[in-house]
């Protein structure tokens, strides 16, 4: 294909050009992997992760372009991992995954994907790093009284990268302005019932508890439509928004239900959230930047959030936390977070994934990418030809 902007950005990463491997290194590859020093690991693989959460509102039509969501122009480098969680996902989950692969291009592969009804969770990894990932496990929890209705609940994906264990959860909590208690019940059910890890060894069992899945992993990222609202009348919220200066959302966050419950210790114990410098992501009229104009006149709120938790302090660094305002096909705006995570050396008791990924999805995504590029070039040629004047 030559090169395009996404591929070039991806390959500019500090670990995109791998060092040559000598024959004796190949023989000792796995033993060397497990004895690599922490200092060298930090130098070569700081670990960068982009988490995205988006309530798609069940729309059949996907945005024409997902570049702004995954590969925005204000990012200097592409990331090692892309983890995308959606709620009320589009009916064709396979089409959604193919579009993600098409956007990320040939240097990324889909490590794993799981779903629970219309909750989708997808993990993409840089192709040259897949060999250092363990086998992947997933589990689901429903928070509906009727378990067959899979619109509320959680999906979790767990794996180990080098010697650091990760848990990614996307969830959709109970809706309704006043249903704070019900959302706390949703959280409690998920942390107690999400059955992970299954076969993967716990990297630090002495700090794990059987009643909380988030204690059984080194790094946890939990994102989704938590449905917590701003406890303020819409007129008051709009007045605050109109007086916001320089991205200071403090006056709004003072009324945020989730922030209050986290401060009280009733939910997301041990989790953190980066400072919020973006406008409420719910509820918009489709296709525009105007908040709900229906008869319900819903109050703008921060329903879509990304939280993180680490067993050790200061092992997760927040690089970016924002919303994607250019995607307007849903009544929610996607929220994205970019993180750097410190990694531990590998261990010889961790079952490696043997480089497995969805090859069929990869080929279809790249085929579409090539087709799109060829059409773009043909259009440019046609446009160029139409501007040439011939004088006889």
Automatic annotation (TrEMBL):
Pfam families: Exo_endo_phos2
Keyword check for Signal: no
Record has Lipid metabolism as a keyword: yes
Keywords carried by this UniProt record: Cell projection, Hydrolase, Lipid metabolism, Membrane, Transmembrane, Transmembrane helix
Membrane topology: Peripheral membrane protein
InterPro entries: Endo/exonu/phosph_ase_sf, INPP5E, IPPc
Listed transmembrane segments: 107-125, 154-173
SUPFAM superfamilies found in the cross-reference section: DNase I-like (SSF56219)
Any one GO molecular-function label of the UniProt entry: phosphatidylinositol-3,4,5-trisphosphate 5-phosphatase activity
GO cellular component, one term: Golgi cisterna membrane
Reaction equation(s) it catalyzes: a 1,2-diacyl-sn-glycero-3-phospho-(1D-myo-inositol-3,4,5-trisphosphate) + H2O = a 1,2-diacyl-sn-glycero-3-phospho-(1D-myo-inositol-3,4-bisphosphate) + phosphate; a 1,2-diacyl-sn-glycero-3-phospho-(1D-myo-inositol-4,5-bisphosphate) + H2O = a 1,2-diacyl-sn-glycero-3-phospho-(1D-myo-inositol 4-phosphate) + phosphate; a 1,2-diacyl-sn-glycero-3-phospho-(1D-myo-inositol-3,5-bisphosphate) + H2O = a 1,2-diacyl-sn-glycero-3-phospho-(1D-myo-inositol-3-phosphate) + phosphate
Gene3D superfamilies in alphabetical order: Endonuclease/exonuclease/phosphatase
UniProt subcellular location: Cell projection, Cilium; Golgi apparatus, Golgi stack membrane
One GO biological process term: phosphatidylinositol dephosphorylation
EC number, UniProt record: 3.1.3.36, 3.1.3.86
Complexes and interactors: Interacts (when prenylated) with PDE6D; this is important for normal location in cilia.
Protein name from the UniProt record: Phosphatidylinositol polyphosphate 5-phosphatase type IV
């Amino acid at each position: 294909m030559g090169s395009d902007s996404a591929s070039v950005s991806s390959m500019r990463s500090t670990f995109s050009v791998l060092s040559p491997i000598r024959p004796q290194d190949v023989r000792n590859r796995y033993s060397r992997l497990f004895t690599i020093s922490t200092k060298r690991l930090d130098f070569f693989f700081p670990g960068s992760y982009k988490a995205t959460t988006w309530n798609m509102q069940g729309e059949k039509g996907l945005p024409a372009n997902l570049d702004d969501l995954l590969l925005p122009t204000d990012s200097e480098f592409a990331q090692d991992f892309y983890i995308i969680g959606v709620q009320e996902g589009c009916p064709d989950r396979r089409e959604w995954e193919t579009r993600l692969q098409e956007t990320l291009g040939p240097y990324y592969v889909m490590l794993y994907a799981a779903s629970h009804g219309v909750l989708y969770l997808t993990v993409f990894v840089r192709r040259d790093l897949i060999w250092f990932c363990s086998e992947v496990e997933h589990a689901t929890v429903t928070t509906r009284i009727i378990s067959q209705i899979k619109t509320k609940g959680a999906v979790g994906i767990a794996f180990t990268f080098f010697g650091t264990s990760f848990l990614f959860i996307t969830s959709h909590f109970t809706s309704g302005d006043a249903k704070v208690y019900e959302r706390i019940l949703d959280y409690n059910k998920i942390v107690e019932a999400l059955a992970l890890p299954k076969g993967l060894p716990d990297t630090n069992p002495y700090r794990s508890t059987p009643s909380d899945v988030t204690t059984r992993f080194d790094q946890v990222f939990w994102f989704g439509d938590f449905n917590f609202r701003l406890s303020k009348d819409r007129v008051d919220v709009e007045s605050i928004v109109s007086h916001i200066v320089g991205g200071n959302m403090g006056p709004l966050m003072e009324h945020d239900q989730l922030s209050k419950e986290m401060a009280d210790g009733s939910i997301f114990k041990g989790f953190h959230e980066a400072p919020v410098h973006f406008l409420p992501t719910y509820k918009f009229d489709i296709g525009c930047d105007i908040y709900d104009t229906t008869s319900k006149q819903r109050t703008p709120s921060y329903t879509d959030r990304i939280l993180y938790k680490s067993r050790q302090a200061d092992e997760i660094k927040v690089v970016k936390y924002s919303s994607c305002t250019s995607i307007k096909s849903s009544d929610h705006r996607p929220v994205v977070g970019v993180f750097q995570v410190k990694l531990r050396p590998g261990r010889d008791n961790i079952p490696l994934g043997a480089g497995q990924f969805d090859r069929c999805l990869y080929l279809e995504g790249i085929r579409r990418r090539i087709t799109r590029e060829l059409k773009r070039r043909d259009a440019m040629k046609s446009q160029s030809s139409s501007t040439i004047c011939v004088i006889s």
